[in-house]
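Figure 6 in text form: structure in, sequence out.
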């Protein structure tokens, strides 16, 4: 599944490079603002209810009440979407100025709202299928979505080099990505069986909606991290100093975050797939196992995204210099910091799974709000004088603060985040120094993990052997174990 998703993200990266090639810096900046709006508005419009599926699908399926739970959630979510969508279309002048920093037509805003509905539907279906613990289907949905978006967008950009083409392609790809889930849901009798006891609206209001409010708040705070730097450049950067149109400046930022965004999307999907398994152990009272799985997932996530980021640093001069013809030099200069932010955000996503299991989303929201406030203040202070680098410096500082707060709070909740896990979590800071220091850190992690039992304990190594060695043997590798005993 991981290999399939890495290949899928590779397709997405190639698509984004082509988008940068076809669009001007200003057009790319407008598309960057539109994509950020989709990420922010999709969970907010439906009040965060699809985000509760990973936590409550297993609970209500065990009681035979899943269909009723889904129906009630859909009614509330649809009402929220219609309210937001109608407001955006009716007040298209004000809403377009807020989203894009300039006026757009009513037709443009209607197209944006329609695309938002398609994206919401896709996100809801992936959350549901993930909650049903069908990761292969989730991977297939994301793969079809990515491939369809690539084909539709590139075909459209060949004829019309406009950001609106990407909005239409984004909506069409979301609809096509839903297709694999339809067969699974129609042929699944397990989740459609009704229990004898009907869910009351009071239960939804007392248990699900507070959790959804936490998810809603978290999505608002989390996605705002991607908006702060863009809108600080849009409203606070000094054009006289930096010599670029503000939309072109946002386009440079968007180009520098191409690879980190792809990796972040992969982290969101992987963390979402892990959550239902942690919830299953939590519901059975296996709290020690949940804590151990949390530590292991953080180690592997940090290591994986660190190595992926190192590969991106090595390849970036070729990608930005030759493929993009040096048009996005500013984007290349901020790439190391953007990759560091990506790694720390990924670590935070895996750490936050425990907060969701324990239904402590409010605490996680407070921590994220503190880090976001620091990001906003630092962006306002540093962007006017330092431009892109000021915005990215603020992101790095805020993300490091968020990781530290999450680890400290988990100790307060009774989960010991040990020194090896903290070491893995802190390792991405080497990316800021460049490819060579990051490579040395990666090599040190590999040596320490393979030759000692400090970074990875015996159980974790044995689990890797059990998961990887059989697949290597399938390809004819004569190997009995990966680790030196």
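Output sequence:
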């Amino acid at each position: 599944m991981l290999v399939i998703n890495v290949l899928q993200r590779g397709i997405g990266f190639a698509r984004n490079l082509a988008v940068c090639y076809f669009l001007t810096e200003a057009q790319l900046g407008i598309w960057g603002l539109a994509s950020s709006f989709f990420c922010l508005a999709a969970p907010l419009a439906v009040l965060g209810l699809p985000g509760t599926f990973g936590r409550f699908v297993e609970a209500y399926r065990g009681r035979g009440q899943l269909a009723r739970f889904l129906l009630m959630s859909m009614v509330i979510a649809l009402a929220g979407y219609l309210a937001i969508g109608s407001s955006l279309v009716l007040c298209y002048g004000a809403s377009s100025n807020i989203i894009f920093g300039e006026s757009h037509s009513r037709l443009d805003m209607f197209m944006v709202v329609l695309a938002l509905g398609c994206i919401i539907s896709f996100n809801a279906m992936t959350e549901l299928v993930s909650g049903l613990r069908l990761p292969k289907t989730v991977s297939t949905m994301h793969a079809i979505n990515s491939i369809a978006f690539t084909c539709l967008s590139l075909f459209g950009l060949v004829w019309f080099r406009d950001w609106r083409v990407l909005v239409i392609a984004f909506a069409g790809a979301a609809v096509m990505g839903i297709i694999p889930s339809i067969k699974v849901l129609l042929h699944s009798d397990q989740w459609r069986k009704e229990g004898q006891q009907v869910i009351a609206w009071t239960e939804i209001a007392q248990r699900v909606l507070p959790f959804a409010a936490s998810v809603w708040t978290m999505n608002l705070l989390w996605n705002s991290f991607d908006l702060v730097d863009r809108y600080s450049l849009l409203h606070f950067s000094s054009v006289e100093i930096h010599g670029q149109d503000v939309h072109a400046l946002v386009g440079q930022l968007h180009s520098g975050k191409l690879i980190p965004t792809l990796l972040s999307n992969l982290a969101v999907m992987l963390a979402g797939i892990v959550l239902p398994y942690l919830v299953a152990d939590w519901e059975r009272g296996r709290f020690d196992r949940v804590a151990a799985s949390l530590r292991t997932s953080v180690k592997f996530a940090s290591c994986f995204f660190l190595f992926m980021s190192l590969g991106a640093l090595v390849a970036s001069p070729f990608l930005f210099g030759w493929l993009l013809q040096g048009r996005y030099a500013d984007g290349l200069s901020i790439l190391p910091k953007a990759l560091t932010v990506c790694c720390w955000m990924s670590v935070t996503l895996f750490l936050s799974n425990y907060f969701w299991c324990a239904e402590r989303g409010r605490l996680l929201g407070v921590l994220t709000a503190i880090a976001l406030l620091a990001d906003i203040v630092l962006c306002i202070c540093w962007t006017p004088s330092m431009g892109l680098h000021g915005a990215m410096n603020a992101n790095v500082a805020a993300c490091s603060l968020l990781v530290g707060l999450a680890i400290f709070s988990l100790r307060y909740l009774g989960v010991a985040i040990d020194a090896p896990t903290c070491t893995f979590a802190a390792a991405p800071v080497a990316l800021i120094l460049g490819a060579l220091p990051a490579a040395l850190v990666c090599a040190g992690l590999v040596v320490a993990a393979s030759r000692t039992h400090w970074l990875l304990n015996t159980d974790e190594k044995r689990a890797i052997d059990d998961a990887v060695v059989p697949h290597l043997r399938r390809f004819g590798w004569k190997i009995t174990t990966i680790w030196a005993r």
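Caption detail: Residues 1-199 form one domain.
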